[in-house]
Amino acid sequence: MRAWPAPDVPALPIQGPEVSLYDHARDELVATEGGPGPRSLYVCGITPYDATHLGHANTFVAFDLLHRAWLNAGHEVAYVQNVTDVDDPLLERAEKVGVDWTALAERETDLYRADMEALRVLPPREYAGAVESIPLFIDMLATLDAADALYRVEDDVYFSVGADPRFGTESRMARPEMLELFAERGGDPDRVGKKDPLDPLVWRAERPGEPSWPSPYGPGRPGWHIECSAIALCHLGAGFTVQGGGSDLIFPHHEMSASHAHAAGSEFARIYTHGGMVAYDGHKMSKSRGNLVFVSALRNGDIDPMAIRLALLRHHYRSDWEWTDDQLFDAVDTLAQWRKAIALRGGAPAGPVTETVLGALADDLNAPRAVAVVQAWVEATLGTDHLAETSHNDAGAVVEALVDAALGIKL
Ligand code: 5CA
Ligand code: ZN
Q1: CB of 394 within 8 A of CB of 349?
Q2: From 59, 257, 308, mutation site for ligand 1 pocket: most ligand atoms within 8 A of C-beta
Q3: Using CB atoms within 10 A as the burial measure, which of 8, 20, 27, 98 is most buried?
Q4: How does residue 307 score in pLDDT terms, banded at 50, 70 and 90?
Q5: Phi/psi at 18 (nearest 5 deg)?
Q6: Over the stretch 344-373, which tens digit does the pLDDT of each residue have?
Q7: Which ligand number lies closest to the CA of residue 274?
Q8: Could you report the per-residue pLDDT of 145-190, keeping only the tens digit for each?
Q9: What are the two backbone dihedrals, phi and then psi, of residue 39, each rounded to the nearest 5 degrees?
Q10: Taking the C-alpha atoms of 345, 350, 356 and 357 in order, what is their torsion angle to the nearest 10 degrees?
Q11: Which residues are in the CB-under-5-Å shell of ion ligand 2?
């Protein structure tokens, strides 16, 4: 599937430090090391049945900071993202609004691409749709079958979590919590005939009126977790650097994706990192609840996408927070102030700003700290005392390039 056009990333005068990231599986900050090859990142993408909301944007902007921090540290980056372009919620929405499910998926994916481009998110190297990747899932199912990790319940095929001795090590959750989340997030713990209530469906036999594809298990469609597992392994290889997504995917999705890989004899990610949940009107922003603020709606209302990005970056990517319109208005004002300061071209010395901003981002993507450092430079520059002393330097150009390359904000 095509991704979206890449924004320019200016070269910086100094290289950034190596990046550390919080790993959920180990519950600590770890170095994102990985030898001389590229740093590799898989981020769970959208299910395209509705437009991109600010929660999605927050997650993709967070991992864009990682992408940029790696580039600024001198690494090549292999980035893969998926599109869940066949799934229950997509089929249900298409039926409800009376449109063809493929047309709905195409329309919403197009809108998402436009939103990502406007937010200056670097595109993935591989943007993989589930439908186009079905042969990968069938291959992986064959490997799991050979490892005795699959069984049937009527015509459906399930994965046995008992086939992975490391099951549970990504989420570190106790079983009662797993059972609760599994039921909430697409699982079917009560289905009769399963070996373990937590076993997830990996191939759903054709139901009347649902799309299906041929497979050795009969016509059907893939389960959700096998999709991300197979796409990540195929395009990034076993032991890729980071599995990313929002914290709503810690369990079951990332646990199951990792388990499928382990049972198939492959390492999965070295690090599991999750963005916090953005709320609105007191609840997690979610398509099912409908409490959404769409990126495209803000853009259509003539809001500068860079102000949206700045408003998101003022929160640490791991925190849960609530969106309010005031934060956006504040970001619009701040952006105007930043633009005024860089337009002076001179200003307070920029060298320490570059080093501190790159350092903050390399330290578990601390964007709020990076934004505060830029803000301090802007205030010092707009204050008459500093400007008078240093008006001949090129600090404005240096900060402009830094804010663009590191934070993805074009001033
Ligand atoms: N297609 C699956 C992943 S394979 C999916 O979760 N799709 S989604 O459209 O529901 O979400 C897309 C991405 O945005 C996921 O990484 C998800 O964790 C994240 N996300 C969803 N809602 C929010 C929210 N309210 N705040 C932050 N991130 C969110
Ligand atoms: Zn996923």
Answers
A1: no
A2: 59
A3: 20
A4: very high
A5: -60, 150
A6: 888 888 889 999 999 999 999 999 999 999
A7: 1
A8: 999 999 999 999 999 999 999 999 999 999 999 999 999 999 999 9
A9: -75, 140
A10: 20
A11: 44, 228
Is the C-beta atom of 86 inside 6 A of ligand 1? Answer: no
**1, 56, 60, 181, best to mutate for ligand 1 pocket (most atoms within 8 Å of CB):** 56
Note the residue count of the chain. 411
Q: Mind listing the domains of the chain with CATH numbers?
A: 20-280 (3.40.50.620)
* Rounded distance from Cα 278 to ligand 1 centre (Å): 10
CB of 278 closer than 6 A to ligand 1?
yes
Going by alpha carbons, the residue nearest to atom 22 of ligand 1 is 55
Cβ–Cβ under 8 Å, residues 59 and 18:
no
CB of 228 closer than 6 A to ligand 1?
yes
What are the percentages of helix, strand and coil residues in the chain, rounded to 5?
45, 15, 40
Assess contact for 67 and 42: CB atoms under 8 A.
no
The β-bridge partners of 129 are: 83
What is the per-residue pLDDT across 205-241, written as a single tens digit (0 to 9) for each?
A: 999 999 999 999 999 999 999 999 999 999 999 999 9
Q: Which residues pair with 295 in a beta bridge?
A: none
One-character DSSP codes across 216-279: TT-SEEE-HHHHHHHHHHHHH-TT-SEEEEEGGGIIIIIHHHHHHHHHTT----SEEEEEPPEE
Whole-angstrom CA distances from 245 to 41, 223, 273, 277 are 10, 18, 7, 10
3-state secondary structure of 159: strand
Distance from C-alpha of 361 to C-alpha of 99, rounded to nearest angstrom: 43
For strands 28-31 and 20-23, give the pairing.
Answer: antiparallel
Alpha-carbon span 159 to 163, nearest angstrom:
8
Nearest Cα residue to 317 out of 58, 52, 64: 58
Cβ 277 under 6 angstroms from ligand 1: yes
Q: Pick the ligand that lies closest to the CA of residue 322.
A: 1
